[in-house]
Amino acid sequence: MTATFRRIGVLGACTVAAVAFGAAAAPVHADDGDGFEFTLYSKEVPGEGASASAPAPKVGDSFTFADDLYKTKGGSKVGRDGVTCSVVRVSGTQADLNCVGTFVLNGGPGGQLTAQALTTFDTSAEAPAAFDVAITGGTGDFKDARGYVRTTPDGDYERMEFHINTR
Description:
By secondary structure, the protein is an all-beta fold. The chain contains one helix and nine strands; from the N terminus they run αβββββββββ.
């Protein structure tokens, strides 16, 4: 997989996926006590044998990656994620990826968020377009969580805007 192709899964891709809490650990914004809205930045942790060059994707290919999650670019680390993506369709330069991931959030509130997305990636593009990842559940302070994460490329990072309902 190319680095760009692998990055699409960031939830981080996808998907799937981290919280900025308080003075260094409280959500950037909470809504009516029913949820959270905040922004984090993810940066991929290079995996063993990672390569920026690889053949074009084909149906059945899969890959995994992990990110560290930060309150600001280069700021305090507030969590991590792990994502697995599979190529489910290829047509010309378009590849559909089904990605599932988990965010582990440190601080208070804390817990885990699960997320998934089916997203289309243009293999000829330098950077992936912004996309949304569905939050499918959580643990700890995020039990019964629903919502989405808007993921946008931002230099060496991915900007991740979390919109979480907890009712």
